[in-house]
């Protein structure tokens, strides 16, 4: 018999009562994580991403692309707030009054020195566990986007985009080319 205390399981009701104080609250694997408000360049990158992806998604009626933070409710004790999400047209009913209840088809996180380890480790693993098809880690300091796909062979190296990133949200569908240097440029 273990003498270790059981991990706390946050209910959604408890999570929803956390203060709206400018911090970002996430519960990952039953543990509460608090991050300070994002820096201005972080928010600028989220806006640029939305300026490119949202019109493309709307023009081709591919689904919904939403800038974050938005609550993504995977399971009891797993509530994350990514920087950007995309959900294919056939699954947009996952959006509810509470947030997104189910795995997005694309999750984007923009790393900071404070969140990089969590974004590349714990969050990547949890997103894969819950069936997120594609996960981008945007690193403004290194000027690159790391692409993780659920269909990837676990032994395969992470794809790194530093020039153009080719995104095809729906197999056989239209393709969007994102210019990484332009997306990640300083002011």
Percentage of residues in strands: 25-35%
- CATH architecture descriptor name: Alpha-Beta Complex
Report how far apart the termini are: 57 Å
Number of domain modules: 1
Class by alpha and beta content: alpha+beta
- The stretches of 5 or more residues where confidence is low (pLDDT under 50) are 1-6
The CATH superfamily is identified as tt1808, chain A
Shape descriptor reads globular
Strands, count? 12
Strand adjacency order, main sheet? 3-6-7-8-9-10
Tell me, rounded to a whole number, the average pLDDT: 90
The top level CATH class name? Alpha Beta
Order of helices and strands: HEEHEEEEEHHEEEEEH
Reported for the largest beta sheet, the result is: 6 strands, mixed
Query: DSSP helix count?
Result: 5
The share of residues in helices is: 10-25%
Radius of gyration: 17 Å
CATH topology: tt1808, chain A
Summed up:
With 187 residues, this protein is of the alpha+beta class. 22% of the residues lie in helices and 29% in strands.
């Amino acid at each position: 018999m273990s003498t270790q205390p059981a991990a706390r399981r946050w209910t959604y009701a408890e999570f929803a009562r956390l203060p709206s104080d400018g911090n970002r609250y996430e519960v990952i694997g039953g543990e509460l994580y608090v991050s300070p408000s994002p820096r201005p360049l972080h928010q600028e990158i989220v806006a640029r991403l939305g300026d490119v992806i949202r019109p493309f998604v709307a023009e081709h009626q591919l689904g919904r692309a939403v800038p974050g933070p938005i609550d993504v409710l995977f399971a009891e004790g797993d509530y994350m707030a990514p920087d950007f999400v995309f959900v294919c047209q056939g699954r947009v009913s996952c959006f509810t009054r509470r947030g997104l209840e189910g795995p997005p088809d694309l999750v984007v996180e923009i790393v900071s020195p404070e969140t990089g380890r969590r974004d590349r480790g714990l969050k990547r693993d949890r997103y894969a566990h819950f069936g997120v098809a594609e996960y981008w880690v945007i690193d403004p300091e290194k000027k690159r986007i790391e692409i993780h796909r659920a269909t990837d062979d676990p032994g395969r190296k992470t794809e790194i985009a530093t020039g153009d990133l080719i995104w095809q949200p729906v197999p056989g569908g239209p393709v969007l080319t994102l210019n990484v240097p332009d997306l990640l440029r300083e002011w």
